[in-house]
Design goal:
Layout (H helix, E strand, L loop, with lengths): L1 H19 L4 E5 L3 E3 L4 E7 L4 E4 L6 E16 L2 E14 L3 E5 L3 E4 L2 E4 L3 E6 L8 H10 L1 E7 L10 E9 L4 E9 L6 E5 L8 E5 L2 E15 L3 E5 L3 E13 L5 E11 L3 E5 L10 E14 L3 E2 L5 E11 L15 E3 L3 E9 L2 E14 L3 E5 L3 E6 L4 E6 L3 E5 L50 H29 L1 H22 L4 H20 L8 H10 L4 H17 L6 H21 L2
Parallel strand pairs: 2-10, 21-28, 22-30
Antiparallel strand pairs: 1-3, 3-6, 4-8, 5-6, 7-10, 8-9, 11-12, 12-16, 13-18, 14-16, 15-16, 17-20, 18-19, 21-23, 23-26, 24-26, 25-26, 27-30, 28-29
Helix pairs in contact: 4-5, 4-8, 5-7, 5-8, 6-7, 7-8
Length: 589
C-alpha cells in the first residue's frame, strides 16, 4: 500500500514538473471587433525567454505604434513567474474580416508559433468619452521621429540623427522610458550630450506640436550600400480623462502607457571614387597637413621633436597618418600619437599628430624629405593631396661619419717630402730592468679541477632542462593558455596605459578588441559588424557564453565613454577584456 502511495506521489510530482516546464506562446488582442476608426492592441506573450522573434505581416493594418518589449519576472511562494511580451498598435486599413497570421519565436532551440487570430472591422464608431477613445486620442497625438541629416552620404562622411518626441497641445505626457535603444551597426558613432530637456514649439505634418529632443548622435558609415539604423522605442506615460469625477466635480485622470517607435531608417552609403591616390589612407573631410620640428640646429646626441600633423574637419579618429622617412644616421623612436578632437552635430573637428623623437649621431646636414597626405573632399566629390616642405636638420658639432668623410683631402695639392726626426723613438726605454714573475702551477690546482669537472656536472642539468622543454612543447593546452595570455597583454597594452582616463581608456579598449579580431579572424575593419563578429566566433567553435561576454564588452566600450564611471569599474572592464580574449584564443578553431 505504501509502495502504491509513493508511486502515485512520484507520478503527480513528475506531471506537475512537466506542466510547469511547458512553454506557452500566445497572441492576445484588445478586441476582436472594432470600428475602422479605432485602434487595436495586439500582444505576443511567452512564459520563457526567447530569441529571433518574427512578427506576422500586418498586411491589412498600419502599424501606428511598436514594437515595444516588456519583461515581467517575479517570485511567489517560492515559484518563479516569467513573462516576455512584444506589443503593437494597429490601425485597420478598411472594413472587413481579416486574419492576423502566426508569429514565431525560438525558445530553447525549438521554434514556437502562435495561433492565427481573426479580427472583424466594421463601420466607424461614434467617439465617446470612454477611456478607449482617450487612449486612441493619445496615440494619435504622440509621435517619435528620427531626423537624419543625410540619407545618401559617402563612406566615412558624417551624418546626424536627432530623435524628437512630438506631443499634441491637448495631450499630457507625464513620463517616458526607453524600451529599445537604437543600434548603429556598421557605423562609428558618438552620442552628443543633451544638457536638460527643453520643451519647444514646432510643426509636425503641418500642425502645431510641442516637442523635446531626446537623443543626438553623429554617425560615420564604415560600409557601403544600404545600412539600417535600428529604431528608438519609448513607453510613454500619458494622463487621460475618465468618466469619473472627484468630490468637487472635476474630471478624474488615469494613466495609460502608449508605445511609440521612431521606426527603422535606411541609409544608402555611396562608395568613394575608384581613382584613389596611392597614399590615401581613408581620410574624408577637409584637412590641412604639415611637418614641424622643435629645432633646426643642434649638436650630436641632442634630441629634437618632429611632428606630423593633420588638422581640420572630418573622420580624424578613423585614418592613419603618413610615416616619416629619415636618413639612417638619425636615431628615431616610435612616434607618440596625440588627438585633440571634439565632436558635435557637424562631426569631428580638431587635429591629430604623430610626434617623433630624433637623435642625430654625427655632424652634418640631414634632410627630412617631403611627404604627401591625400584625403577625399565629399563636398566637391574629389580626392585632394597636400605635400609638406622639405626640412633640413643641421648638426653643428659631433663626430664625423667615416662612411661619408672625405678621404681625398690632399687630392690636387703639391706633395711635400716628409722629414723623419732622429729622436722619434727617444721615448722607448732601452734598459727596462725586467724581472721574471713566478706563476703558480695550474696543473692539479682548484681552477684545474673545477674546469675539468664542471662540464660533467652540467650534463644532468642539460638533460633536466631538455626534458622540461619537451614537456612544455608537448603541453598543447598549456601552450595555448600561455599564448592566449600573451596576446591579451599585447592587444590590451595601450588600454592599460590609459587606465583612469575614461574616454582614452575605452577608445583604446575598443580598438584593442577590434585589432584582436582583425588579426585572429583575418577580417577588415569594414566587416566588423556585431552580427558578423558573432557569426564568425560561433563558426570557429567559441562557446556561446564567451561570445556573449565579448559582445557585451564591445557594447560597454561603445556606451561607457558617455556615462560616468570610476577607476574601479575601468579596471574591472580591463580584467574582463583580458580574460575574454584569453578564453577566445583557447577555444577558437
Amino acid at each position: 500500500m505504501n509502495l502504491l502511495k509513493n508511486i502515485s506521489f512520484l507520478l503527480l510530482l513528475f506531471v506537475g514538473t512537466v506542466v510547469s516546464a511547458q512553454v506557452t506562446f500566445e497572441t492576445k488582442v484588445s478586441k476582436k471587433t472594432l470600428g475602422v476608426n479605432e485602434r487595436l492592441r495586439i500582444d505576443f506573450q511567452m512564459n520563457k525567454d526567447g530569441d529571433n522573434f518574427v512578427p506576422p505581416s500586418f498586411v491589412d493594418f498600419t502599424v501606428v505604434g511598436g514594437p515595444s518589449q516588456s519583461i515581467s519576472n517575479s517570485w511567489a511562494n517560492g515559484k518563479r513567474s516569467y513573462s516576455k511580451m512584444y506589443s503593437y498598435f494597429l490601425a485597420p486599413k478598411r472594413k472587413g474580416k481579416f486574419t492576423i497570421k502566426q508569429a514565431s519565436v525560438e525558445i530553447g532551440g525549438e521554434v514556437y508559433k502562435t495561433l492565427p487570430v481573426t479580427i472583424t472591422v466594421k463601420t466607424a464608431v461614434t467617439k465617446s468619452e470612454g477611456s478607449n477613445n482617450a487612449s486612441y486620442e493619445a496615440t494619435e497625438n504622440i509621435h517619435l521621429v528620427a531626423e537624419v541629416s543625410k540619407n545618401n552620404p559617402y563612406l566615412n562622411e558624417p551624418l546626424t540623427v536627432v530623435y524628437k518626441l512630438y506631443v499634441g497641445s491637448n495631450t499630457g505626457v507625464e513620463n517616458w522610458r526607453e524600451t529599445d535603444t537604437p543600434r548603429y551597426n556598421d557605423f562609428w558613432s558618438q552620442n552628443i550630450d543633451i544638457k536638460g530637456i527643453k520643451i519647444m514649439n514646432g510643426k509636425y505634418k503641418g500642425e502645431d506640436y510641442r516637442y523635446v529632443v531626446l537623443r543626438k548622435a553623429v554617425l560615420y558609415p564604415q560600409k557601403t550600400g544600404k545600412l539600417e539604423i535600428e529604431p528608438l522605442v519609448l513607453d510613454v506615460t500619458v494622463a487621460v480623462p475618465t468618466k469619473r469625477r472627484d468630490i468637487f466635480g472635476g474630471r478624474m485622470m488615469s494613466q495609460i502607457h502608449v508605445p511609440v517607435s521612431a521606426g527603422k531608417r535606411t541609409i544608402n552609403v555611396k562608395p568613394l571614387p575608384e581613382n584613389a591616390p596611392s597614399d590615401f589612407t581613408g581620410a574624408v573631410g577637409k584637412f590641412d597637413f604639415n611637418i614641424t620640428t622643435s629645432k633646426r640646429q643642434l649638436d650630436a646626441s641632442e634630441s629634437l621633436q618632429a611632428k606630423v600633423e593633420v588638422s581640420g574637419k572630418g573622420n580624424l579618429k578613423l585614418f592613419k597618418l603618413p610615416k616619416l622617412t629619415l636618413p639612417s644616421s638619425l636615431e628615431v623612436y616610435e612616434p607618440e600619437h596625440n588627438q585633440n578632437v571634439r565632436t558635435d552635430l557637424s562631426g569631428m573637428r580638431g587635429k591629430i599628430s604623430d610626434s617623433y623623437t630624433i637623435i642625430p649621431q654625427y655632424k652634418g646636414k640631414y634632410p627630412i624629405p617631403s611627404i604627401s597626405f591625400s584625403y577625399f573632399d565629399p563636398e566637391v566629390g574629389t580626392f585632394k593631396r597636400v605635400t609638406s616642405d622639405e626640412v633640413v636638420i643641421d648638426v653643428l658639432d659631433g663626430p664625423v661619419n667615416n662612411a661619408t668623410a672625405d678621404n681625398n683631402l690632399n687630392a690636387g695639392g703639391n706633395k711635400q717630402r716628409v722629414v723623419l726626426s732622429t729622436d722619434q723613438f727617444a721615448f722607448v726605454k732601452t734598459n727596462p730592468n725586467l724581472a721574471a714573475i713566478e706563476s703558480p702551477n695550474f696543473f692539479k690546482s682548484k681552477l684545474f679541477w673545477a674546469s675539468l669537472l664542471s662540464p660533467l656536472l652540467l650534463i644532468p642539468l642539460a638533460i633536466v632542462f631538455r626534458r622540461k622543454r619537451e614537456e612544455r612543447l608537448s603541453d598543447i593546452a598549456g601552450n595555448r593558455v600561455r599564448l592566449a595570455d600573451k596576446l591579451a597583454r599585447k592587444y590590451l597594452g595601450e588600454a592599460k596605459k590609459s587606465l583612469g582616463k575614461k574616454e582614452a581608456f575605452y577608445e583604446s579598449l575598443e580598438r584593442a578588441l577590434h585589432n584582436y579580431l582583425k588579426a585572429k579572424l583575418n577580417i577588415e575593419t569594414s566587416d566588423l559588424s556585431k552580427e558578423k563578429i558573432q557569426g564568425l566566433l560561433t563558426e570557429r567553435k567559441v562557446s556561446h557564453d564567451t561570445v556573449d561576454e565579448f559582445m557585451s564588452l564591445l557594447q560597454s566600450a561603445e556606451l561607457a565613454r558617455y556615462t560616468p564611471l570610476s577607476n574601479v569599474e575601468m579596471q574591472q572592464d580591463y580584467d574582463k577584456a583580458a580574460k575574454t580574449i584569453s578564453a577566445i584564443d583557447k577555444q577558437i578553431r
